[in-house]
Write a structure and sequence with these properties.
The protein has about 550 residues and is an alpha/beta fold. It folds into three domains: about 150 residues, Rossmann fold (3-Layer(aba) Sandwich); about 220 residues, Rossmann fold (3-Layer(aba) Sandwich), CATH 3.40.50.12780; about 100 residues, ANL, C-terminal domain (GMP Synthetase, Chain A, domain 3, 2-Layer Sandwich). The protein is built from 17 helices and 26 strands. The chain has an eight-stranded mixed β-sheet, sandwiched between helices. Strand 10, helix 9 and strand 11 form a beta-alpha-beta unit. The longest helix has 27 residues. It is globular.
Length: about 550
């Protein structure tokens, strides 16, 4: 390798160091080794590394990593959805056409466009095209109501909307002259009046070729979950290579294989794992709506090595029973990554009993990215643990202003890493302490240094002078054989200030009732942890990322 090559590799190390709050150069070198060991970068091809870094700075990570993939393996399958498969070459060509088409519509680099779509080729093509055109892409939540959509679109100054036709009814409050492009139209449907089809845009600009470099760097805004209010926008422009290293360090991302991503790509986990999977030349298999048995079929048909899901999805797959699961050859599966909400100890064990020692629990947030990962062995020793921080990340627990060092003591979780965001689009940010960013959660370490998340800091209630974290009660009830799903939270109480409310979904034929719920908690936990409200419902209200919509539980008429 010549001097120029060493300089470019040095530039990669410097970019890792410069973009992180962790100034330990040894850790930075470790991160580069993780990238090289996974196949993400080839240290013998320094010019390719330099090109990827440059495209990342200008066009964002999606365009950079797809360009890398199309250079290395253009004819490999990039994705498979309900309408077939696309190669990386086809994805590159389609995204070039969309970028050129958006420019031809007068949407210049630096403008914001909204994306309201389920997981399919239209979404992936648009994400890559927006980066190539230098557009700020706002990933809108498919669970939005009309008022939420309008509020977020106006706050983020969206100048065009790309969306699936099923959401047309939510657009009534938007300006009539807002350009609209349909990314998915169900078979037999006709396009809504005034909307263009993404496929038509591609056909019209198919010969356009790559668009000129944008005048300003592209960025992607992912929204927070918004389970208690209007979601905030967390924008990201250039993404540090460290973000990929943090994912690859403790997670089994395959190379030149297949991965089924069941979680929505408009949210952080699904999006990040699609990026890394694409960079490693994988065929990413998506479905517009989650179906437990179809997910098993997708794993078997594509010989997928990886499944990305949220806990409720895994629970529904297990509920199919051994006979149904046994119909599908899942022997290719080497990793199940679960993220998005709390993994109960009971579900942790059930998944590994059914699918083998393949479960990885990823803990993080839209704001801090990856904070920690638990491996299958760690989950067997300590079911439900969030594990340990990946390369260059650091976790600190803080209680009463001081760092927590002893096992078992709770503290607010703070994370220090390069992939953290720089602030919300409304100008606010998360709480910081000595370079560490709050996740808003409370947790503790065990004797081996494994992290456990005990609940949200603002979920804690005071009952009888004692601090109560609802998640402890939630995990206890989740392990009961009659309980199919459960959420526990604090609600206002006119006499005591706050009380616990447990909302449960029972299995068919269950004998458990409200008094039985209270008796079960009382037999296992202190009296002040027994929920005063017990509500039995057919289903819990969850958003598309699997998180319980707490606002709906708070507003229940009990």
């Amino acid at each position: 390798m010549g001097i120029g090559g060493h300089l470019r590799i040095g530039a990669l190390v410097r970019e890792v160091v410069d973009s992180t709050l962790v100034t330990d150069a040894v850790e930075a070198v470790r991160a580069v080794r993780v990238l090289a060991g996974s196949g993400m970068v080839d240290l013998t091809r320094p010019q390719d590394i330099a090109t990827t870094l440059r495209v990342n700075r200008l066009n964002g990570p999606a365009a950079a990593l797809v360009r890398k993939a199309v250079t290395e393996h253009p004819d490999a399958m990039a994705m498979t959805d309900e309408r077939g498969s696309l190669s990386y070459r086809e994805l590159d060509q389609r995204s070039n056409a969309v970028a050129a088409g958006l420019r031809a519509m007068g949407i210049e680099s630096g403008a914001s466009v909204g994306m309201l779509a389920r997981d399919h080729r239209g979404l992936v093509t648009t994400v890559v095209a927006a980066g190539k055109a230098g557009l700020d892409l706002v990933m809108l939540n498919t669970g939005f109501g009309g008022a939420q959509l309008v509020d977020v679109a106006r706050r983020e100054d969206v100048s065009a909307l790309l969306y699936d036709s099923e959401f047309d009814g939510l657009l009534a409050g938007l300006d009539d002259d807002l350009p609209r492009i349909i990314t998915w139209l169900d078979d037999g449907e006709t396009a809504p009046a005034g909307a263009r089809m993404l496929d038509d845009l591609i056909a019209e600009s198919a010969q356009a070729g790559p668009v000129p470099d944008p005048t300003s760097p592209a960025r992607i805004t992912v929204l927070t979950s918004g389970t208690t209010g209007l979601p905030k926008g967390a924008p990201r422009a250039k993404v540090s290579p460290l973000g990929s290293a943090m994912i690859l360090d403790r997670l089994p991302i395959p190379r030149a294989s297949s991965a089924v991503i069941a979680t929505p790509m408009f949210h952080g986990t699904g999006f990040a794992l699609w990026l890394v999977s694409a960079a490693l030349g994988n065929n990413v298999v998506t479905m517009r709506r989650f179906d437990a048995e179809k997910t098993l079929a997708a794993i078997a048909e594509n010989r997928a090595e990886l499944l990305v899901a949220v806990p409720t999805m895994l629970s529904r797959m297990l509920d199919l029973g051994d006979d149904v699961i046994g119909r599908y050859d899942l022997s290719s599966l080497t990793g199940i990554i679960v993220a998005g909400s709390s993994l109960t100890p009971e579900l942790s064990d059930r998944v590994q009993d059914a699918f083998g020692e393949v479960l990885y629990n990823l803990y993080g947030s839209t704001e801090v990215s990856v904070a920690s990962v638990a491996t299958p062995a760690e989950l067997r020793r300590a079911p439900g643990t969030a594990g340990r921080a990946p390369v260059t990340a650091r976790i600190r627990l803080v209680d009463d202003g001081e760092a927590v060092t002893e096992p078992g003591r709770r503290g607010e979780v703070f994370v220090r890493c390069a992939a953290a965001f720089k602030g919300y689009t409304d100008g606010t940010t998360k709480s910081m302490r000595d370079g560490y960013m709050s996740t808003g959660d409370v947790g503790h370490f065990d004797d081996e240094g494994l992290l456990f998340i005990d609940g949200r800091a603002d979920d804690m209630i005071v009952s009888g002078g004692e601090n109560v974290y609802p998640q402890e009660v939630e995990h206890l009830l989740a392990a009961h054989g009659d309980v199919a799903d459960v959420a526990v939270l604090g609600v206002p109480d006119p006499e005591y200030g706050q009380r616990l409310r447990a909302v449960l979904v029972l299995h068919e034929g269950a004998s458990l009732d409200e008094d039985g719920v209270r008796a079960h908690v009382k037999s296992q936990l202190a009296r002040h942890k027994v929920p005063r409200d017990v509500v039995l419902v057919p289903d819990l209200p969850r958003n598309p990322t699997g998180k319980v919509v707490r606002k709906a539980l708070l507003e229940m008429d009990v």
